[in-house]
Design brief:
413 residues; alpha/beta; Molybdenum Cofactor Biosythetic Enzyme, Chain A; 5-stranded mixed beta sheet; 15 helices; MoaB/Mog_dom; CinA; CinA-like protein
């Protein structure tokens, strides 16, 4: 079985709306072992929609359309699907009554268009919206499934009706389960080299790499096909063990775990408190860590200070140091780390000072310092030719990485 998605809407082609439905549908299809071969986006144009749908019906078993089943004249999905399938549009009185009940006093004659579906199609009732869909059979034994473009409605229908229908209709018994290992601090090429033999020889489960450049992370996706999630998990477990043994501390979490949460968990496990000081970065680092530790006693403070006078007053950075090295320097980062730690009485003091044009260059960068026991300091640096908007999150991750590796090192000792 292979599937195709046809996303309908001129606003998507113009970039006025970002298509999130396509990615969601792809994930849902993969979860039950259906391969997605094609995805098309087409505007609200009858001729181009017919052309796109004809191609989809000729080559795919399952075609899912999103959008274009509203009440207005530019909602053309019903008409074009019916024409491609050689069917007439038929009024379903029960759908009309449901639409009237949903719309109430807002009902107009235009809404009646939504109660018409291609002849021979199975209605797909929509209890969370006014646009019912349908399952329309194709000449080659497949099906066209038309869904509303509103994400909330689409997701409800997919999870409660579409996926169960597909599993029953095509007797799908296997399912696909993925587990993602998230890595920080290693390049994609290095990970690929370390896992090369596993990638080449593993068939079920398989291994795939995905670079999350904005986050500075590399994701290793382990995917297995089995009768159920438990069986798939048992296939994945030994491969995960092999991957972790090769990548070591770089694997910070799985699936939904974010890096800041992994750092927050380490602070809790070691019962360590932390305070953060920033200059030139609008509080990005403190925000990331503070989100993961909101209301938690392990997170004492986040201080943002840009002017030299503020660094002196709030963080006890010596004036002489500022005059000699400037605000954005490794020396000032160290002083900030000591200052925020001492001022707040915490176990750790994390400091980062950065600028969009570091020392007059085209680089966005920052100097990072982590103050810990007995006056010891671990230092880091981030430099990249990019805008501050893109780099700010990467600098935040690089700062948190200093904390993460501090705990990893203490565990190894």
């Amino acid at each position: 079985m292979h599937a195709e998605i046809v996303v309908v809407g001129t606003e998507l082609l113009l970039g006025q709306i970002i298509d999130t439905n396509g990615a969601y549908l792809a994930q849902q299809l993969a979860s039950i072992g259906i391969d997605l071969y094609y995805k098309s986006t087409v505007g609200d144009n009858r001729g181009r929609m017919i052309e796109t749908l004809k191609r989809a019906v000729d080559r795919s078993d399952i075609i899912i359309t999103t959008g274009g089943i509203g009440p207005t004249l530019d909602d053309l999905t019903r008409e074009t699907v019916a024409e491609v399938l050689g069917a007439e549009l038929e009024l379903h009185p029960n759908l009309l009554e449901q639409i009237k009940g949903m719309m109430g006093s807002r009902y107009t004659d235009n809404n009646a268009r939504q109660a018409h579906i291609p002849a021979g199609a199975l209605p797909l009732e929509n209890p969370v919206g006014t646009a019912p869909g349908y399952f329309a059979p194709t000449p080659r034994g497949g099906v066209v499934i038309s869904l509303p473009g509103v994400p909330g409605e689409l997701r409800y229908l997919v999870e409660n009706t579409v996926i169960p229908h597909l599993k029953e209709r095509f007797r799908i018994e296997a399912m696909i389960t993925s587990r993602t290992l998230k890595c920080m601090g290693l390049s994609e090429s290095y990970i690929d080299e370390q896992l090369d033999d596993l990638i080449k020889t593993s068939n079920n489960p398989t291994i795939g790499l995905l670079a999350q450049m904005q986050l500075g992370e590399i994701h290793v996706r382990l995917t297995a096909k089995a009768a159920n999630a438990e069986a798939a998990g048992k296939l994945i477990d030994p491969l995960e063990h092999q991957v972790r043994s090769r990548l070591g501390k770089a694997v910070f979490g799985t699936d939904e775990v974010e890096y800041e949460q992994a750092v927050a968990d380490l602070l809790k496990q070691h019962n360590c408190t932390i305070a953060v000081a920033e200059s030139g970065l609008s509080g990005g680092v403190g925000h990331q860590l503070g989100s993961a530790l909101a209301g938690d006693p392990h997170f004492a403070a986040a201080v943002t200070a840009h002017l030299p006078a503020a660094l002196e007053h709030l963080l006890d950075v010596p004036e002489e140091l500022l005059n000699r090295y400037g605000t954005v320097s490794p020396e000032v980062a160290v002083a900030m780390a000591h200052g925020v730690r001492k001022r707040n009485g915490t176990d750790l003091g994390l400091a980062v000072t950065g600028a969009e044009r570091l020392n007059g260059s085209d680089e966005t960068g920052a100097f990072i310092a982590l103050a810990h026991g007995d006056g010891a300091v671990t230092e880091g640096e981030y430099r990249r030719v990019s805008s501050m908007r893109f780099a700010r999150q990467r600098i935040g991750r690089a700062s948190l990485q200093l904390v993460y590796e501090h705990f990893v090192a203490s565990i190894q000792r």
